[in-house]
Amino acid sequence: MMEAVEHDKRQWLIVELLKEFLEVWLQFEEIWRRYRQGTLTFAEMARFIDDKDPHLPLFHLKEISHELFRQPTGDCPEEGRLFDLAVGSIFHEAMKARENLYQLQVYRPHYRQLEGRTEGASTYEMRLREEFAKIGRRAERGLREGLTETRRLFKDSLEQIRVFLTRHRGENPLLVRFLLQNETLLRRAYGRKGLEEIMAEAFPEGITAAYREGAMSFLRGEHFDLAARFFSRYLRHRPEDVEAHFLLLYCRGWDAYLKNRYRSSLRAFRQALRLVRDELRDRVKGFLEKMAAAVGQMARELQEEGRRRGAKAAFSLAEEIRVLAV
Known about the structure:
The chain has 326 residues and is an all-alpha fold. 83% of the residues lie in helices and 0% in strands. The radius of gyration is 29 Å and the shape is elongated.
């Protein structure tokens, strides 16, 4: 039992890590753009990275990566260790860039105020000014190299994530949900063409089948609102799939039931029941049993509230569902 819980937690953390990495990458791209324009400020860099604030994006990303891939037992897969090393290196290079930017924006203005004051300056003062100038040049070079290396590591890791998504999505159902729920994020991170390539590699059977697979994944996890959304997308391409129509209405019914919208729930369950024919009955028997339980519970609650007419209709529907579920 504990192993199953730990496995589920790990799968969830992997998806969280992927999402956070893409979001952090996009934040870094804005930092890179402002650096290239010459408008990057230390305050902006400090909001991106700090080695003491666990709430900042890059620090949090590093911590999740370490939790997943720095196992003391050494049984972490090689691709995980490689990714963790890349994240750690990104953090290290970005920290160096942060310190160099601090040197340039906080200390260098003071150095430059002293540059023109040579009259009466002692030998050691002149040497200090020369050293300050060297420090400024080294900081400029260090900032450029640090940000360039950070960006290179990010781009290499983006490619690793792309391979991971397409290679492992069958092992982790949460990856299917991630791909389908985060199309906008993936498009921003990889571009329109990159997103199309990822989807084609992850779902070689086509995006239509992916919608159905995603809907079933959400249904198994009892995320009925999301399951209904992806069944709707699927049915735009496959309107003849009666089972998918049934499951869409089943999900709508459960979603409404959980939100205490009993009238909408009963309507959706009633519509779903009308679709059940002999060829479909055996395939949806388990869903019918759960539907009957929900409708029966609604009937009892309506009866307790004195809503006799609604309770009578719900009891009748529950019995009709039970007959079909036998």
